[in-house]
Amino acid sequence: MYSMSSSPAMSGEEGEAPIDQEEFQHVLVELAGLEKEFEKVDVDILRETTLRQAPLFARRNVLTSRIRNFWPLTFEQAATALAFDEYITPEDAHLLGSLRGINVTRPTATTEPRTFLIEFEFCPNDYFSNTVLSKTFTHQPGGSGMCSAPVAIAWKAGKDLTEGVSAAAGAAFEERKGGVKRGPAQMALQRKMGSGPTSFFNWFLWTGAHEAFGEVHEHGGECDGHHAHGEEEEGPVEVFPCGEDLAVHIAEDLYPNAPKYFTDVVEDEEEEEEDGDDIDLESDVDEDSAETILAQVGKKGKRNGADEEDGPTKKKSKK
Fold first, then answer.
1. With contact defined as beta carbons under 8 Å apart, do 278 and 93 qualify?
2. Model pTM score
């Protein structure tokens, strides 16, 4: 097994004089500065890409709206590929069947393109009266990841798939905004979360730790909110595991690669049976032309460097 016999700061190659400690520290400082320059370039590229692609995505949204069940099928396929389908219950799946559209924008692209907005648009359904669920994920300047606010979901009587967590999360968030640490509303939310999330829609309630609320500490924290044995949990009550990671997957993989996920569904269904009931182009495009178009979309592959054969790449948010 390879091992390093001494610290890089203490010695050079065999026969050479020890590395000067002051020089070593100076190099480390320069490396840190260079990393910041890399980060700035990444942000500039993201800003330019966002601004140039925005009108293209707007045109694509119009086209996909003509395909019945485009988003329910796409979302189901991506959920399996990105391994978050374990959080989707049968009732969640039924509600997600009324999904009309998904849209991702970066409303502050000119100033902070790492902040993004995810919108889920729904047809009228039996579960809630909302037509759009909008959730913003804000990049925090301190480098502690993203934060958000719980979305107010107007559940119909007896149809709350979160089993009361929606209301409890809203009350707990207002308490946190007021500077209260582990107040009664947060304790009530923690009791409701005793057995973990009951629905995918808990994700809309995820907030993360807010720097502005003084909830971020130097030691940081894992996305699952676990702490060392005996250590008191200080962060917000976790209502959905790794909520930030899922948001990044939707914004940087599911949404930009939606046509590819959809064509994967088409190809899978064609292999199993020659039945196109779930796929319907609401236009005058004939069936042969539609198949040709879908084939061409499939050949384009995935954006953001995802490998067609290996499936979607799991991405981390640009910090």
1. no
2. 0.78
